[in-house]
Amino acid sequence: MCPGSPRCHAWGDDAAVPVAGCGLCKRADRDPVTFGETCRQDALCIHENCLYHASGLIQRGNDDEGFFGFLLPDIEQELQRVAQKMCCICRQRGASVRCQRRRCYRTFHYPCGRERGCVSQFFGRYRSFCWLHRPRQRARPARRQQPHCVICLEAVEEQPSYSTVFCPACTGSRFHRDCIQLLALSALHFRCPLCRDSENFQAEMLRLGIKVPNRAEVWEEVEAFQDLFQQQSSCDAGVCHCPLGREHSDRLGTHHFCSSIAEDIDSWDCDICSAAGN
């Protein structure tokens, strides 16, 4: 984030939680799973997920401009646009999300939609669908035993529903929507916990409205520390006598002969480490 740009933070930061609610949904909830992060500038506070699914908003800035690339003048204009739009769920004004099904005119607040069983997708055009037109999974053959969530091991519904989702690659994995969403937000490798499928599983979860973070930045951070995991592979003695060269060594860091170490010694400390231990 560039200096002087609006602040974005996770709800977990209690010291920075604003008193006012989100300008779009009017809620001041802290749940990061439902609302994502929150951006604020002066008296304006906006949930990340409400921003992405406001039907009249377009990202016209870079990631470090405005709120997640949504410019402040555009946000103000969207707040004015939805000021008189009625939520079909809570019957309050300010509904910014519209069902993308053709000829469906239902509008709702983002969190109201989640509570009613609407689906908002976190990829592509970030489309949202009401509870009647949301993406659905095909029914599966009934099982003899009571099915359970692979993640929390609690009971789930027998057939796919808004709260119960299935892996498309295997027949045995069922998940609570909340459980699989928590896994998607925390896992470095998001895949089916049972069959380990990744490509088909991720595509289906995205279609059903599961938010799967882009892990590209995480991989860059991991790769930045790869040197810390590399084992010693060369002889560091002052004079190496090995005819094959310094690189012909093991993880101990030196050849026995080069360091004048007795044959029955399996490990040792260099002079610096020995002095530090005294």
UniProtKB/TrEMBL annotation:
Functional pathway: Protein modification; protein ubiquitination
Which key words are in the record? Metal-binding, Transferase, Ubl conjugation pathway, Zinc, Zinc-finger
Q: Which residues form the RING-type domain?
A: 149-196
Q: Domain of life of the organism in this record?
A: Eukaryota
The record, for InterPro entries, names:
EPHD (IPR034732), PHD-type_Zinc_Finger (IPR051188), PHF7/G2E3_ePHD (IPR042013), Znf_FYVE_PHD (IPR011011), Znf_PHD (IPR001965), Znf_RING (IPR001841), Znf_RING/FYVE/PHD (IPR013083)
The portions of this protein that span the membrane are none
Indicate what this protein is called per its UniProt record: RING-type domain-containing protein
Name its species. Callipepla squamata (Scaled quail)
* Organism classification: Eukaryota, Metazoa, Chordata, Craniata, Vertebrata
